[in-house]
Amino acid sequence: MGHNDSDRTAVAAHRDEVEPALVQAIVERAPQVAAAVPATAAAALGRWRGGQEHRARAGTAEPDVIRTLRELPGWLVERLHGALELTVRSLPPVVGAAAGLGGGVAGTFAFASLTTEAEALREARSFEARRQGAAEVIAGLVSRLVGEEAIAGLLGADAVGDEEAAAAAHGAAYLAVAVVTAAAVLGDAGCDKVAAQVGLGLGVASVLLRRRSMPVVYEEPVLAKKRVEYRLPAFGSMQVAVREHVFALAEGPLPEPGEFADNGLVEVVEGAVLVRTRREAGVQEVRMRVLAEPPAKIDTQGWHEVVEVSWPARLGDATFVGPKHYNHRRIATPPWPGDLRVRVFAYGRDDVETESYELVVWEAPPAPTVVHARADRLGHRLRGEPEPAVADLPEAAYRWICQSALSEAATVTVVVGLTLREVLQAFGADIQEPEPIEDLLDSDLEFGPWVTVSEVDGIVLAVEENGFQGAQREVLAELSRGGRAASMFWNVNAVTRLSFARDGELLASDELGRPLGADPEMTAAVEGLDFDDWRDRYAKGLVAVERFTGRGLTVDDLDEIEDAGMGYPLADR
After folding, report:
1. CB of 305 closer than 8 Å to CB of 276
2. Lowest CB count within 10 Å: 108, 173, 486, 491, which one?
3. Picking from 2-16, 258-272, 288-302, 405-419, which range would have the lowest pLDDT averaged per residue?
4. From CA 13, how far away is CA 326, in angstroms rounded?
5. pTM of the predicted model as reported, rounded to 2 decimal places
6. Which of these, 505, 503, 499, lies nearest to 522 by C-alpha position?
7. Cα angle value 484/487/489 (rounded, 5°)
8. Consecutive H or E run containing 255
9. CB count, 10 Å around CB of 334?
10. 233 preceded by a cis bond (ω within 30 of 0)
11. How far is residue 196's CA from residue 32's CA, in Å, rounded to a whole number?
């Protein structure tokens, strides 16, 4: 039900009568409260901007003040409550301050709490349960009061010292104003529990601090701290927000992108380096390395486009803009102005599924833009050049492996010329005793290696999840006695082994990219596969297995094996 005109008049009259008294109480008492706040706790509160999005507790509709108080670290709530206990106990109420509260809950009600819950949180919740809406009333009061000229001067804007001191002054000032207000209201309402007064004051202050920027005086000590703590080389990766086919390494707000007609990849603008993507919008993983000196060499292996530009950083501390609420490790350029050299690497811009980027940054005098590699079709199109033919990448057919149960470690073996039973015998499997795959995956069981198999058009596919028997030389040679066999092994440590056998003889077995010999069939199997490029290496090995045997493992094959749900334990060798 809405308020009528008389209600609004009464509320306005209450504000006119009570808020001047609250302003006077805050001016007189807030400095005393702020002085009692420990510096470490005050700084933690001053820096606090909240964690993830608030989620209301199941079955409740907690006000923002209580949810925010619950979100604060427990040690911070306990520390501040203990430090303010005596000071807050001496604060007198302000007559009439509680007039804005609703009436108390009539009758009896139940209130549940946890023994691990901080007392200040518990008592704040209890008061809110008895006087529903009290937390928001106090929050509204404080929000208006901090705008008063007499109070604004108390809010830490003139703090001096390092980052810790500036953050502490900011946090202690807002906490003091909120606690004095909460004590005035609760005291007038007949609640003399210091825990409730501190708890509601802390919750209100935290809500305000989450929404307000640090004072301007905070910027200089923060920058000084960053400069002292910054170390080179620095490296990391971030989930970066892409907007209108662009992401930016920027010192501030994102500028408008241009046409990228000069080099097809990078543009330098005021305050930012812009990178052109295939992806129109969304999130892109980007790696960055910041070096103490220029890189020793220019390595374009595995990248389609590589462009190097100079950028005069006006402020420093440039970073990427990440998607909202995404928790990621921040990686930034040096937090001081100066001339930078930025080398941008791009891969897969013609295929959004493989698109990836890396930036290498170091300090260097201005120099002309250099294009080290220009191979993708998007770059040619942006530069107004004829587009090259679409690259034939047979490994693309096996990229699904990285999204499957085999992504981390497996061996895929393809056998031509033996029956399924003969293949299992060569593996050393107990043919009579297959086991459910779920049991074989149970680490508590004593099973050793195991294999799953499928026969398709006379060719046997053997899959070992986190196994390697098919990569053993003697096993693969035995598997090839009826014709030919090949296997591809990889594990979580990026160890690989590509193996070929024919007519009972092992032809070659080695790491991807190592010389395999002059056998023409093996040569044909690996022709055109760039194993020096680390991307899709396992997929390239599987292409070689398919070429040598005439059959590869497909998504449908693996689905069929998994649906059958049975595997065979292997004897120890």
Report:
1. no
2. 108
3. 2-16
4. 45
5. 0.58
6. 499
7. 170
8. none
9. 21
10. yes
11. 19
